[in-house]
Design a protein that fits this description.
Blueprint (H helix, E strand, L loop, with lengths): L2 E7 L11 H4 L4 H14 L2 E7 L3 H14 L2 E5 L8 H7 L6 E5 L21 E4 L4 H14 L1
Parallel strand pairs: 1-2, 1-3, 3-4, 4-5
Helix pairs in contact: 2-5, 3-4
The structure holds 1,3,4-trihydroxy-5-OXO-cyclohexanecarboxylic acid (DQA).
Length: about 140
Amino acid sequence: MAQLITIINGPNLNLLGQRQPEIYGYDTLDDVAKSCADIAESLGLRSELMQSNHEGVLIDMIHTARQTSAGIIINPAALTHTSVALLDALHTFDGPVLEVHISNVHKRESFRHSSYVSLRADGVIAGFGVQGYSLAMQRMGTLLG
Ligand code: DQA
């Protein structure tokens, strides 16, 4: 069976496409799931996209990925900038972890400039819009190939 890439999304990303489209664009999380699944298939991988507004649920997703997944792509959303618990959970995962931000967080408020998750991430993509997820999936193909 093809290796699984788990794509984890944090708070408010369920509203992607409706939420501040001038910053995050009009594509939805379903659109992201579909394009990532297509790329994963072309790379001989599988992908599954998840989202939660709750920190503990996101931690449980990471724990599940320890058993099921070869790699994690994560957009922790606002928890990027606050959550030591997410960082600790990611430290329990052995495979590649790629961090994605739709917007260029470095061009925004200073509180968005720091990321706990980056202390674990093997790569970070920011400011490429939802295309960042596709680029991260391509990178997974390289890292796991
Ligand atoms: C985000 C950037 C975060 O600062 C913000 O809280 C988000 C989305 C992004 O994808 O650009 O919710 O992670």
